[in-house]
Amino acid sequence: MVKFDKLTVPAEGKKIEIKGDRLNIPDNPIIPVIEGDGIGRDIMKATRRVLDTAVEKTFNGKKKIVWFDIYAGEAAQAKYGEVLPKDTFEAIKHFIVALKGPLTTPVGGGYRSLNVTLRQVLNLYACVRPVRYFEEVPSPVKHPEKMNVVIYRENTEDVYAGIEWAEGTPEVKKLINWLNKTYKLNIRADSGVGIKPISITGTERLIRKAIKFAIEFGRKSVTMVHKGNIMKYTEGAFRDWGYKLATREFRDHVVTEDELWSQYDGKVPEGKIVIKDRIADSMLQQILTRTDEYDVVATPNLNGDYLSDACAAQVGGLGMAPGANIGDFIGLFEATHGTAPKYTDKDMVNPGSLILSGCMMLEYLDWREAAELIYKAMGETIRQKRVTYDLHRLMEGATKLKTSEYASAIIENMG
Ligand code: NAP
Fold first, then answer.
1. What are the CA-CA distances from residue 178 to residues 174, 175, 204, 233, 243 (Å)?
2. CB atoms < 10 A from the CB of 9, how many?
3. Considering the entire predicted model, what is its pTM?
4. How far is the CA of 402 from the centre of ligand 1 (A)?
5. Model confidence over 90-109: pLDDT tens digits?
6. Ligand 1 mean position to 254 CA, how many Å?
7. 3-state DSSP call for residue 222?
8. Strand pairing of 148-154 and 296-299?
């Protein structure tokens, strides 16, 4: 058992174990939880109540999450004198699956984002963002219900591992001279220069995860989104390596879009997942105009950044968008919005994003029925127009609920 400096592991509950290439989930897994700063307290309380009730109802008390409070951000500063103590990393590494509220990134003072640090140190290379519509949520498009995508965005390379040199510095002058001379280029002397790496390793592990998800959850297609027409050896290579991986490792499960037309007359053979690719600019158009032709998406970092928010906007914005950062086994499930400090402890904000991230966590534990129960109950609550202030101000005839009341309404709708 790992030793913690200032944490006491709950007496009840068992650790999730890794067995071969899968997780072995006990009936009472210990799940570390970071409450988070600002509105974290309110939304985490609401989320834990909703998740606990759904698990209890679904499994008649035979399964239960044993929450284990760990610390980051302001709470960690108070307890440890630092914002991200070693205990926190060790707890997530050891117990494998964790839930996290939003954390403040102090401006200035040489702080790195705590969220980025957690992802990097724990090697959480896939940022996963499911985007689906809940009936009645105000949306800027005519058919928001057509959106049901899961985006796998690469989390460690591309612009996240980008290196830049500022215009006018000795370093950039040296680099430009060398490039112009060695490769007979004509880069302007007053340029800033950036380099972005995309590797086979980073690409394959991301796309493998996306395809495995598509197989496990019976999804229809995996679309690789890239800008390979312009950046052939990074973005274009992402696509090429992706097709190779798909046909090498998942031959029995997949058909490429080319094969679909050359061999199957455009009709998807029973049980096969279509592997296709789209250029990023075209994809941003298609996700609006042919929304339901897209299902699982795998993409390098920057494209994924744009696409995640564009998709979320179509179904009513970021307030309800869940997310997770996942590595080979470790899964850190988190709200995608920030700490909204002006609403701290006001019991006002929408806990939807964190609750839905909790649903992703339940699916990761393979407790899918409990997640389904929450999706249905939350859908029903929104249909009844019982919502928090953010949706209330956009919906006609709605009832405004506090964070805690909204959680209670979801629980009530679990029947
Ligand atoms: P923010 O905390 O996401 O809040 C911006 C606005 O979004 C809020 O004022 C509110 O809008 C709305 N909002 C956010 N969460 C909501 C919720 N649960 N329910 C209803 N409305 C919600 O963004 P920010 O003000 O730019 O950032 C504040 C702090 O959070 C910063 O320190 C930032 O670094 C951090 N942050 C953390 C994460 C993370 O931990 N993953 C992510 C992003 C930002 P209205 O006032 O219009 O109602």
1. 6, 5, 32, 20, 35
2. 17
3. 0.94
4. 17
5. 999 999 999 999 998 776 65
6. 39
7. strand
8. parallel
